[in-house]
Design brief:
Helices cover 71% and strands 6% of the residues. It is mainly alpha-helical. The protein has 3 domains: 88 residues, Serine Threonine Protein Phosphatase 5, Tetratricopeptide repeat; 52 residues, Serine Threonine Protein Phosphatase 5, Tetratricopeptide repeat (Alpha Horseshoe), CATH 1.25.40.10; 53 residues, Serine Threonine Protein Phosphatase 5, Tetratricopeptide repeat, CATH 1.25.40. A two-stranded antiparallel sheet has the order 1-2. Strand 1 and strand 2 form a beta hairpin. Helix 5 packs antiparallel against helix 6 and helix 9 runs antiparallel to helix 10. The N terminus is likely disordered.
């Protein structure tokens, strides 16, 4: 007897009803315990439990390594993931973030452009590419990408925050406030949205 289970929208697995390896397979993709995720993914790789989905296993482990601050191991796994399946879009996001954090904006843009080549409607890639343009002080380009991200996913809060920061840098405090307040309506407890809104209001009081 066979069953199919989908994990976090990315990881569909086929397993026998013995459930012998269900634990490592599920734990590999969970995000609440990153060290457990690393151990579980390592077990999946070691036992070759999902050979048809190995690019995902390496991606999940690479993502966990990245969030744990182990960039070297993260890069090794993320590159292995795209080596196995160059059309798997998700590792390019993490690779782009690592490149941006290292101020290698050119390489970061290459990663995000590759993700968008694979999926032109990938809102997360537009948002992260917008962050790169923001880091390069190319605010018009960053806003264009943030806007595209929200067109694709209107409830995606982070592009509104990025847009607010970009508009503030361009001196358009009024439009920045509109974007920040929209972000807060979507996510009332988001600290970044609250921070940018407070900053804009403080600027208005001083002027």
């Amino acid at each position: 007897m066979i069953f199919v289970r989908c994990i976090v929208g990315l990881f569909c697995t086929v397993a026998a009803t013995s459930f012998a390896y269900a634990g490592p397979i599920e734990d590999c993709s969970q995000e609440n315990n990153l060290r457990l995720s690393v151990r579980a993914c390592s077990k999946v790789i070691e036992l070759n439990l999902l050979p048809e989905k190995s690019e995902m296993t390496y991606y999940f482990r690479g993502n966990a390594h990245h969030r744990l601050g182990n960039t070297r191991r993260a890069l090794k796994d993320l590159h292995r993931s795209v080596e196995i399946n160059p059309s798997y879009k998700h590792p390019y996001i993490e690779l782009g973030i690592i490149s941006k954090n290292r101020k290698n904006y050119k390489l970061a843009l290459e990663h995000y452009n590759k993700a968008l080549e694979i999926d032109p409607r990938f809102a997360k890639a537009y948002y992260n590419r917008g962050n790169v343009y923001f880091g390069m002080n190319r605010y018009t380009r960053s806003i264009a990408d943030y806007d595209r991200a929200t067109e694709l996913e209107p409830n995606y809060v982070f592009p509104y925050i990025g847009r607010a920061f970009s508009l503030l840098e361009m001196g358009d405090n009024k439009a920045a406030l509109v974007s920040a307040e929209h972000a807060l309506r979507l996510a009332p407890r988001n600290a970044h949205a609250a921070e940018i809104r407070a900053h804009i209001l403080d600027e208005a009081k001083r002027n």
